[in-house]
Write a structure and sequence with these properties.
480 residues, alpha/beta, six-stranded parallel beta sheet, elongated, UDP-glucose 6-dehydrogenase activity, UDP-glucose 6-dehydrogenase, NAD, EC 1.1.1.22, NAD binding
Amino acid sequence: MVKICCIGAGYVGGPTMAVIALKCPLIEVVVVDISVSRITAWNSEQLPIYEPGLDEVVKQCRGKNLFFSFDVERHVSEADIIFVSVNTPTKTQGLGAGKAADLTYWESAARMIADVSKSDKIVVEKSTVPVKTAEAIEKILTHNSKGIKFQILSNPEFLAEGTAIEDLFSPDRVLIGGRETPDGQKAIKALKAVYAHWVPEERIICTNLWSAELSKLAANAFLAQRISSVNAMSALCEATGADVSQVAHAVGKDTRIGAKFLNASVGFGGSCFQKDILNLVYICECNGLPEVANYWKQVIKVNDYQKNRFVNRIVSSMFNTVSGKKIAVLGFAFKKDTGDTRETPAIDVCKGLIDDKAKLSIYDPQVTEDQIQRDLTLNKFDWDHPAHLQPLSPASKKDITVVWNAYEATKDAHGICILTEWDEFKNLDFQKIYNNMQKPAFLFDGRNVVNPQKLRDIGFIVYSIGKPLDPWIKDLPAVA
């Protein structure tokens, strides 16, 4: 029986290995992690991450050919193929701070693999890594190999949270990069055979190592660029009276462009986009390409501009101050159908409002109070480091309450901010909400989930990103 071990039981490792186990019943799959609490959760009824369809897949395979363990070294030693899905956070200090990827955890994993291996291994990069990481990992493994052969493959993930299981069941493509040597090609063939259990051969793309590594960064950069492009256009729509949804629909009908990732919003979030673009910027700078680096920097700048613009709209609309006012925040996750809050725009929006002394009442159906408090007190990029390296008990923000009901969040509020496009927010009883709010009642829709005119008919003053402006807001400044 082929044995697969995945180091890292997070958003990528857990779901990916669960689907491999489901689709390949004759392969033993073990997910390992040094976090006892995380592994315990994977073995419980309450999984550590929320992802539609994940529960069913895990429960079908767990205990049969899918296992979760914190006995890392034993399972790494026994595996034929080792997926490495550890964090590659942005460096917070030293050379490349704020841009370069921190490969500390990758290097530790590589050294551990070399120490415990007693047979030849295929080591698969599953984390998003900078170009040429495979070369560094190869050097560590070969210099500590004790005669054991290691082949390094790059197999980046292209999952979208909220649809990860669907994406794994029917991927656009599976990308495998390896060395252009007989042993390298043999390793590619071995990994390809795993995916071929359910992925059509024409969707499995094989490249050299560097192309696979760069393709992941390039894909995320292109997607983020589309979001920043439509968000930049949303500001112009507001200034001219155009409707960004209509503009995006017209542009998306161009078959050369397509309709995906053209939804204007308060900004992009998630664990990859900002981190990968900063990484790309650093790689460009290191390779003497400052013009290219500056081009990609602008994608991040527009994203930050959009979040700042949203906060400024709120403050200027509400008589230029939110001090002491209750603002209901509906949604904290970076997108619907996930509890993930990494780099969510809600963090910057909430911090901006808190800086103006607002009182926030936050509701998200999947994010806990502890997570929200942690996100609003951690320094930038700290979220991507292991929990034991983060502050043990970050000081709670006294101006924040977290509730488990949208109606409770909005009761007696002066304004509402919608920051995640959860489906339930489209179907709220806004008349009931309006009746229980302070007047004038403001609603700021950062995801364009409500019908502005219907809410104006109720009595709300409404701001929707990129939509024709409410008469109340029309002559107020968009930026500070």
